[in-house]
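Re: that backbone. Tokens:
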């Protein structure tokens, strides 16, 4: 009996033990995955180097979801790299993007273009794996480009603090006081620095810059250097130095003396490097100047010998004479006035005010007496709006921008004592187009003059060649409206206010175009601009957005023409909807409801106005590709004005009936 019980007891104990083991194994098999621990901080600056960015986040967080992974979002804000770190459920979109690779232990950034914003995102699996963000896979031999979904090639890394005071006295070697490191927006940009005095105090400027554009009016020639060798610029104010280089953060140390002795942190004997980089550049410059001179002489001879094919000889003559003009009003055209003595300008009254600047009528003294002066317009920017001033000045700096239907630019000045930036241009006493149309009714001839010259100005901006055949960079205005069009004394228009304009270089990437943002005035924005769906692969789409805006201005002009028999009180496009329109309300009207300003039936009573209204409708078509070009509108005006004779008796009668005979133009 005892043996039986002993045997049963041992069997029972074994069974119990077996059950416990099975239960324990089952419990282990069903234990949930350990939750991830990730860096989790709101947006803050990151410390970036050539192939990686290290977040400054000190907060670690246990993720709430069992499937969460570590993620990071990378972007730029005012030139500074910003990073946000967080836990993330990979089944959900991250900033609108569904991540397809999050199993790696490395957080490899990939580029995403979302409407007008450019983001770089990554996700990974591993404890705090989102602290270090890689710009390419660790085993990659070559940095991938922006087209590679698994990473992107980083542009140059520079010190970027814009303008700040410094203790540097322009001798020996100076350290910049800038503590902000920035990855340049444009892959072609290099590191630059400038040193000068402001009210006797030295200031230093550090930033990224595209060497294809002038820097403080000077084209960079030494940007392939490995060190930033300061050079004094002749012809500018005393003690003005600039330098450029193309190594990581090379504009942090500025050399005001010959870099021949080894210095800590700098390559030994960089002089041969400088010679190798500078001498070929000098030879290339000489060759290019020689080629340009030969081309210029040959081109001038061709212009004199024969009429340029397809170009109006009178228009070409105007432009050529403008090139050769040497009087005091244009001697400083398309330049920055670097003289120690500023131009003798006396401000008169304010004639306009915008978001970034105020415009004054002013007197530019021409002689020793107060009676000898030229009326000019002065656009004054506060020091805080340096970027806006610089953008507009660089647009004006293009010599090929000059055109009879573009505001004539005289010079720009940095008024240090007043902490103001000035743009000095021609002055037109008739004011802007909106003010003019509010006060005047125009006839058929006035409509053709105003509308035709407006179209010619826009066509010149958009063209990649001047009327005489010289190459130029196409420009889009991006804020075309009647307030930004001036009326000249001969009742022709000229375009002004290029603060939001963009130069369309052929080498611009979609990323660079996306960074240009959604700009303009909501009332005049094209549907694709309102909806942030510009075709970034096609720079022509930016021109067609201008054409849409131009159509609204043409509608404003036409609505005040007496030739239609019932010219109305001036009203802005969509003026009957709301006084102050915003982007969201315009989306409802322009995109959802496809609304456009009313074209009254009376416009069909005049053959010319009827043809023009058809052109306007083509210009504001909802589909950008269906719109006609600005050059096509110029040709339409030429055909309409020459083929259609305004019924003089009808115009005269309508003017008499309205009591505006003295306002008829």
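Recovered sequence:
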């Amino acid at each position: 009996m005892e043996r039986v019980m002993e045997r049963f007891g041992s069997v029972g104990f074994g069974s119990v033990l077996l059950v416990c083991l099975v239960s324990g194994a089952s419990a282990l098999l069903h234990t949930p995955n350990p939750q991830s621990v990730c860096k989790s901080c709101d947006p803050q600056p990151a410390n970036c180097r050539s192939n990686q960015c290290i977040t400054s986040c000190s907060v670690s967080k246990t993720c709430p979801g069992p499937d969460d992974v570590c993620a990071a979002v990378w972007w730029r804000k005012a030139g500074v790299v910003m990073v946000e770190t967080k836990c993330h459920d990979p089944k959900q979109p991250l900033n609108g993007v569904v991540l397809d690779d999050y199993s790696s232990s490395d957080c490899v950034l990939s580029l995403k273009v979302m409407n007008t914003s450019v983001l770089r995102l990554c996700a990974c699996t591993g404890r705090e794996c989102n602290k270090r963000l890689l710009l390419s896979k660790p085993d990659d031999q070559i940095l991938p480009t922006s087209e590679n979904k698994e990473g992107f090639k980083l542009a140059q890394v520079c010190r970027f603090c814009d303008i700040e005071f410094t203790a540097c006295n322009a001798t020996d070697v100076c350290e910049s006081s800038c503590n902000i490191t920035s990855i340049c927006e444009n892959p072609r940009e290099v590191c630059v620095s400038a040193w000068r005095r402001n009210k006797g105090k030295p200031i230093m400027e550090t930033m990224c810059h595209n060497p294809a554009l002038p820097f403080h009016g000077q084209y960079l020639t030494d940007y392939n250097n490995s060190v930033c060798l300061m050079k004094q610029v002749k012809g500018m104010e005393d003690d003005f130095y600039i330098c450029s280089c193309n190594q990581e953060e090379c504009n942090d140390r500025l050399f005001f003396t010959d870099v021949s002795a080894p210095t800590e942190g700098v390559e030994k004997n960089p002089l041969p490097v400088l010679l190798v980089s500078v001498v070929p550049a000098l030879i290339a410059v000489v060759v290019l100047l020689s080629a340009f001179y030969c081309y210029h002489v040959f081109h001038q001879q061709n212009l004199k010998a024969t009429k340029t094919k397809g170009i109006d000889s009178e228009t070409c003559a105007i432009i050529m004479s403008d090139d050769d003009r040497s009087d005091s009003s244009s001697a400083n055209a398309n330049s920055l006035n670097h003289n120690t003595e500023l131009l003798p300008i006396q401000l008169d009254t304010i004639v306009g005010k915008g978001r970034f600047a105020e415009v004054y009528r002013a007197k530019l003294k021409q002689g020793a007496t107060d009676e000898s002066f030229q009326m000019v317009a002065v656009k004054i920017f506060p020091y805080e709006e340096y970027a806006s001033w610089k953008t507009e000045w660089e647009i004006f700096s293009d010599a090929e921008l000059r055109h009879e239907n573009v505001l004539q630019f005289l010079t720009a000045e940095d008024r240090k004592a007043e902490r103001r930036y000035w743009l000095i241009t021609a002055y037109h006493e008739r004011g802007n187009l909106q003010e003019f149309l509010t006060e005047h009714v125009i006839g058929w001839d006035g409509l053709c003059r105003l509308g035709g010259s407006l179209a010619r100005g826009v066509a010149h901006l958009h063209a990649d060649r001047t009327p005489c055949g010289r190459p130029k960079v196409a420009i889009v205005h991006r804020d075309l409206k009647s307030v930004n069009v001036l009326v000249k004394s001969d009742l022709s228009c000229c375009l002004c206010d290029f603060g939001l304009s963009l130069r369309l270089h052929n080498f611009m990437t979609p990323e660079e175009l996306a960074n240009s943002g959604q700009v303009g005035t909501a009332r005049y924005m094209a549907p694709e601009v309102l909806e942030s769906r510009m075709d970034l692969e096609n720079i022509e789409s930016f021109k067609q957005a201008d054409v849409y805006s131009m159509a609204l201005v043409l509608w404003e002009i036409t609505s005040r023409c007496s030739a239609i028999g019932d010219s109305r009180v001036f009203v802005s496009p969509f003026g009957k909807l709301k006084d102050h329109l915003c982007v969201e309300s315009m989306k409802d009207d322009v995109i959802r409801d496809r609304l456009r300003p009313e074209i009254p039936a009376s416009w069909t009573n005049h053959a010319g106005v009827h043809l023009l209204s058809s052109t306007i409708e083509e210009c504001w078509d909802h589909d950008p590709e269906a719109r006609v070009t600005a050059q096509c509108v110029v040709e339409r005006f030429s055909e309409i004005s020459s083929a259609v004779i305004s019924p003089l008796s009808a115009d005269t009668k309508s003017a008499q009936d309205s009591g505006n005979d003295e306002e008829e133009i």
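The chain has a mean pLDDT of 78. Residues 37-134 form a domain with the CD59 fold (CATH 2.10.60.10).
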